[in-house]
Design brief:
Elements: H1 2-24, H2 55-59, E1 62-63, E2 66-71, E3 74-77, H3 89-93, E4 98-99, H4 101-108, H5 112-119, E5 122-125
């Protein structure tokens, strides 16, 4: 009898946690739910005249006013995130125009929340 109660309670807790995770997951179009949650919109501008993003394209976006970085094979426009980054502006400015994969992975690894925020800045995949 106590095993059934325990199992039932575990299922309720699991469903509650799952529902919370789904309900609080940030999206590019949702309104902020707290001061700490930043929502973004993906950049849809063509990366170059032919729409191909290369490391040369990334390198041309290397300033505080226009900051792109390559992270794990994708290009991200981090310009609007510079002033909002919890670790300070310098952490993002050091990635502008460069491959920031090592710095990003070293600091954040595969943290799902951070990856979700990063996804909001996606420009597109980088061509080899």
């Amino acid at each position: 009898m106590s095993t059934k109660i325990f199992l039932g309670a575990a299922i309720v807790v699991f469903i509650g946690v799952l529902g919370f995770a789904v309900a609080t997951r940030p999206s590019a179009t949702s309104a902020p739910v707290s001061d700490n949650q930043i929502t973004t919109t993906a950049t849809t501008t063509a990366a170059s005249s032919n729409g191909v993003i290369t490391m040369a394209t990334i390198a041309s976006h290397n300033s505080q006013a226009d900051c792109w970085s390559a992270i794990n094979g994708n290009a991200y426009n981090l310009t609007s995130w510079i002033a909002k980054h919890p670790g300070g502006e310098g952490a993002i400015l050091s990635l502008c125009g460069k491959d920031g994969s090592a710095a990003f992975n070293g600091k954040h690894g595969a943290n799902p929340r951070v990856l979700s925020v990063l996804a909001g800045f996606l420009v597109g995949p980088i061509s080899k």
